[in-house]
Amino acid sequence: MFERVSAAPADPILGLNEAFAADNRPNKVNLGVGVFMNDDGVTPILDTVKQAETRLVKEEITKSYLAISGDREYGRQVQALLFGNDSAVVAANRARTAQTPGGTGALRLAADFMHTQLGVNTIHVSDPTWANHGNIFTSAGLTVANYRYYDAKNYRLDFDGMLADLAKVPAGDAVMLHGCCHNPTGVDPSPEQWQQLADVAAERGFVVLFDFAYQGFAKGMDEDAAGLRAFAEKVPELLVASSFSKNFGLYNERVGAMTLVATNADTAEAAFSQVKTLARGNYSNPPAHGAKVVATILTDDTLHAAWIEEVAAMRNHIQQLRDLMVNKLAERGAARDFSFIGRQNGMFSFTGLTPEQVKTLKEDYGLYMVGSGRINVAGMSRSNIDAVCDAIVAVL
Ligand code: LMR
To answer: What is the pTM of this model?
Structure first.
């Protein structure tokens, strides 16, 4: 029977890693998958993570199962980061958090919940969006539609288009929003625009799902949550898929969370019982290690403060690379104004390079990026940025 199964295309992001690994050229550069690298080309383990792990090795006494919804303290810490320490939503006991295997696990759990419990059939996502969103949502039985988001001609948010499209979404559908550091464009709404978007959502009554995977990578922990918190004030029910892959560098530990906000504690409890049933039927209960590391850091004042500094250092490093890239492309007389790269948030930049240019960069220069022209700015270093800029200018 397996002979009837035709081969699937390579994953547009993770598939690039395989092609990159098989490439023998010494000067190859991988700007595909979104992982942070330091100037030595290494994705480092944060110091605070190492300290927490050392503590866990000494103090942990069991590897028995976690609850279906994961570690309780972790859930509390997730909510504090998302909604702030003085959140009305948390104080009113309206939020519940399930620890999930990565942000992807959280998105899938949210999608399963929307489809099976809320009767949602269609989810509207930004055009463009992360290449895996469609895969996750269709796997959960949802149909994926687009709302306007990116103004490719002017390298900025098409806010009017976005607002107009969201104003037409029916109440029974869902809308997914990127909390910050939009993947793949790096273009986010301003705090004022977030308020307007929350007004539209409250008025229309569609289901809102935030994908929040880069908190701290744009401006800061609280600043980056401005959109989510505007929604938490104005919209009575929310779903949030969050991830600690990037801001804790815990990529391969799969540390995510699915948080639901309901109108009151009883409704939250009942809805969350269904979330737990869905998690049990999918992965049973989440992996413990990464979440225990996160909870250890966030509950220790010294480690927490040190972690905030580590995130700031990663954020600043990326911003420096953005500025450097803009200058280097201009110095080389690039036949285009790339100053927009310096204004985007987070790891990614949507370069505007065409699929043909992306192909030439890979084949002729060993420079790998996603077919959409997205680069992982955080994958560059001071030692390869010149080669990257040379290659880009050559194909323009
Ligand atoms: C990315 O967009 O590169 C990251 O979110 C990693 C992934 O799983 O695709």
So the answer is: 0.96
Q: How far is the CA of 13 from the centre of ligand 1 (A)?
A: 7
Assigned superfamily of 10-45+313-395: Aspartate Aminotransferase, domain 1 (3.90.1150.10)
Distance 297 CA to ligand 1 centre (A): 24
Atom of ligand 1 nearest to the CA of 130: 2
The DSSP string of 301-319 is HHHHHHHHHHHHHHHHHHH
What digits encode the pLDDT tens for the residues 217-231? 999 999 999 999 999
Query: How far does residue 162's CA lie from ligand 1's centre (Å)?
Result: 24
In CATH, the architecture of 65-299 is 3-Layer(aba) Sandwich (3.40)
Annotation says 307 is catalytic: no
Q: Which residue's entry shows tokens 């609850």?
A: 67
- Residues of each domain in the chain carrying CATH 3.40.640.10: 65-299
Give residues with Cβ within 8 angstroms of 358, minimum separation 6. Answer: 369, 370, 371, 373
- Residue ranges of the chain assigned to CATH 3.90.1150.10: 10-45+313-395
Q: What is the largest CA-CA distance in the chain?
A: 62
Pocket lining for ligand 1, CB < 6 angstroms: 13-14, 33-34, 130, 132, 183
Is 364 an active-site residue? no
What is the pLDDT, as a whole number, of residue 359?
96
